[in-house]
Model the fold of this input.
Amino acid sequence: MNSEPKTGGVKAVRQQLDEKMNIGDFYHAQQLYKTLVVRYTAKKRYIAMQELLIEGAVAMLNKDQIPAGTELASLLIKHLTEQKVKCTAQVAEPLLSIFRAYPEALDPSKKSFVVAVCE
Done:
């Protein structure tokens, strides 16, 4: 039996994600965000997954990666909807931080984010 430790755990993927964001490899960073979402979901670590999606959406939007940020925000909204999370101030504040991260002009992605949140 192989005695070497397993690699590719959440910590390793998180490290790769940080490296990709730091060098501006946003496509691969987005893929790593989605990989972590799957892993957190499988472990039922929903709060960690929500925090990751909020962080990822804001980070991507702040780097002018509008489609990537919008996709991560959409995954968050999908999760909140599926879990029937009630819209409280605690839930709304992170959503507002995503909204604020969009460029000032009412980009179609920003409008679709607002529509999705309000549904």
